[in-house]
Amino acid sequence: MNKYLTIVALLIGSWLVSGFFSLFFTADAHAQEQPIAFTGATIYPISSPPIENGVMVVQNGRILAVGAAGSVTIPTAAQVKDASGYILMPGLVDTHSHIGGGDGGDRSSALHPDVRIKDAVDVRSDTFRKARTGGVTVANVMPGSGHLLSGQTIYLKLRDARTIYDMLIPDENLRDGFMGGIKMANGTNPLRQPPFPGTRAKSATMQRELFIQAQEYQQRLQNEENVARNLRLEPMVEALEGNRIIHFHTHRHDDILTVLRMQREFGFRVVLHHVTDAWLVADEIAAAGIPSSIIVLDTPGGKLEAINLLYKSGRYLEEAGADVAFHTDDSVTDSRLFFRMAAFAVRDGMSREKALEALTLAGARMLDLQDRVGSLEPGKDADFILLTGDPFSVYTHVQQTWIDGIKVFDRANPDQLPFATGGHEVYRGDYFDHYSTGGAQ
Amino acid sequence: MRITGKHTNLLLLLASFLLFSACSGTQSVALAQNQVAVKGDIVYTMAGEPITNGIVLVRDGRIERVGSQSSISVPDGYDVFEAPVVTPGIIDTRSVVGLAGIYNVPHDQDQLETSSPFQPELRAFDAYNAREDLVVWLRNLGITTVHTGHGPGALASGQTMIVKTFGNTVEEALVDSTTMVSFTLGPSVGSNFGGNPGTRSRSVALIRSEFLKAVDYMNRDNPPRDLRMEILVSILKGGVRAMVSAHRVSEIMAALRLQREFGFDLVIEGASEAYLVADELKEAGVHIILHPTMTRTRGETTNAAFTTAAVLAKHGIPFTFQSGFESYVPKTRVVHYEAAIAVANGLSFDHAMRALTIDAARFLGIDSRVGSLERGKDADIVLWEGDPFEYLSRVCTVFIHGEVASDQCR
Q: How many CB atoms lie within 10 A of CB A191?
């Protein structure tokens, strides 16, 4: 191609891309220029103690002010909404979800660092609307656990979306340009016929070999000019450099310790996921300073690794001083009932405060989003929910869900209520699930 | 829960604690308590209005007296247990626990035999593991009676039975040996049996042909023994019920059609789309064992709703709850957790409590023994920290037949 034409094409391309971005990433903010003040609610900022009769002001998609009535100036131009009788708290951060119908690697390899779930998500999937009725505003959407490394994950804000770009969160530290992690797994799920491993030791070896390749590639990038691109190793280097968090599915106590060992060897940032046996090795997890994103199920079992999946892991991790969040693993549990999971951890002794933090700010930390979401503080994204009562009561409903200062779910809206309750032809979107594959994922 | 010894003889008290310690490692914690008084701030007897500051006296495994604490004093020699809320043991009207085990490996999965899609002759009690961890889990959460057995997924997968969630053998646990036969209409049968039957229509045709054979068998004099025909004849004669798993409207209507053709006692299990044909179900007078409220909305249950229990109640359609069958994690559900979500979505507290206790007992034909706290019934009693449906209300003591079956808050 003619050199100048190439340059012109690049210029047009970059203009299109920047225009595209500005169109979508500022549209939400512009859509909410008038300040909105919520009054009368009990506010759980998470980052500070609850506020009775609180006031929160939001504008342009951000929180302007949060505080007790009288201590917060409500702008004269503000639209005032009476939220008396409601609990107002941050939108929930789901650190591990399979909503959106996406998938990751196929059976050609046990390790797929080049595969992006971003390329497979259906933003019109009903699962997003369903999740919002449970108060979820941010989700780490991941490929499954049937691989040692099933692909790159994406962190999504569950806005109304025409394309995936309406939900993605920009990240200048990643070559891809958008926030996301890497999904890895050990234990029994990735064990199968070659090219998959057949044992735990082989699993760890294959994972370590990939990290060693990434270290070598990282050295070349630092020391050599014009190093050929390598789609498999680029995201692994980003992980080694701390810009991409490894989200590591692990159940059994010894598998958990294997992840900690691998983390010490290579120094990547990691979040443990599921962590069934956390209560057996909570002190080791805390000593390593590694956060855990746990799941609580009604009943243990269903596979050998999950027979110790008890309500008490949250309490044990809290008592050990480890950072702990929850995740739905939707469709393993239902995003509409995310609070329910935290309630069962409280039932077995986790503190209410820690459990609420585990649904919000702790999850935000595990996605590097703690400066934007997870608590109600001035300057943060206006992602919040209104609850009809105690967050840990079965009788409490999410009344409204707001993202970037825009209401995306209202239980009082008869067109939206069915997404919370279900019914005839309410859910039509297809989604990844562990059940049609007989648990293979 | 607080335990107050009323024994005048301290040695006897000591002896009972020693016995307790000795037995605590075994599956069924059997205190030598023949005489127990259970006090509740609220006692839901399920026979009349709840009793504020109520008391239940238990003697030799049965309920001796029920009333208010002001009118009944604790006799000497009774161990006293107290709780904010006291209810009868919870009844799960459709499970597979005991045939399905916690590990989910072939060794502990007996709920579905895949050699043939039509095997109503398979007896549940020949495969029940009374020591199964899932049974213990349910018992510890207050479920004392379970209608369990063969699962969904075959045209006729086998028989079901009723057990108490205690005992080391099925013989100890058994309440009713042959309660229903589990039938399934829907695509899960095809996927479990290599596409044969491959359609809903052929599934119905196969079931009809088997029942026609049974009609013929029933009318013969001294036919040779045939285990399959014998159980189908029991269904035709009304001694055993046909429990048909049907979710979509076409499947529900096919089940009603089969019932009209052969006149058997029909129970519909699942019924995700029941709200679309409430009038037809009401007219048929059929009992629904409603799908777990939190069932995943995929495949056959895509159209399930949290509100269906409330809709059935509004139409006066008899129904009870179930834990159902789970293929992966969690390996079983907990029936009153499912009822709780129905209450949070429009079903009345009272209706849900009845569905878990006395309505379930009547439906299963065992209300002379369980389902309410009344004189002479089995002393199956649950002590709760609060509202049984609340997430944070733990179950702290469970009695089965007057014996402490669980004594830790869970």
A: 17
C-alpha to C-alpha distance for A70 and A55, rounded to whole angstroms? 8
Nearest chain B residue (CA) to A352 = B392
Contact criterion met (CB < 8 Å) for B296 and A297: no
Which H/E stretch holds residue A81?
strand A79-82
Does B327 sit within 8 Å of A424, measured CB to CB? no
pLDDT, one tens digit per residue, over A25-72 is 444 445 678 999 999 999 999 999 999 999 999 999 999 999 999 999
Q: Are residues B76 and B94 located together in one domain of the fold?
A: no
Q: What is the CATH number of the domain that holds B351?
A: 3.20.20.140
Residue A160 near residue A154, CB atoms below 8 Å: no
Radius of gyration of chain B measured on its C-alpha atoms = 22
Determine phi and psi for B343, rounding to 5 degrees: -65, -35
> What are A157-172's pLDDT values in tens digits?
999 999 999 999 999 9
Domain of B251? Answer: 90-364
Q: Which pLDDT does position A32 carry in this prediction?
A: 78
Domain count of the fold of chain B: 2
- How much is the ipTM here? 0.91
What are the distances in angstroms from CA B126 to CA A30, A379, B109, B138, B181? 68, 65, 13, 21, 14
| Whether residues B324 and B395 fall in one domain | no
Whether residues B223 and B166 share a domain: the answer is yes
- For B378-398, the pLDDT digits (tens) are 999 999 999 999 999 999 999
Mutation target to probe the A interface, by most A beta carbons within 10 A, among B329, B341, B394, B395 is: B329
How far is the alpha carbon of B95 from chain A, nearest alpha carbon, in Å? 14
Domains of chain A, CATH where assigned: 31-90+374-418 (2.30.40.10), 92-373 (3.20.20.140)
* CB-CB under 8 Å, B103 with A423: no
**Measured between beta carbons, which residues in chain A are less than 8 angstroms from residue B97?**
none
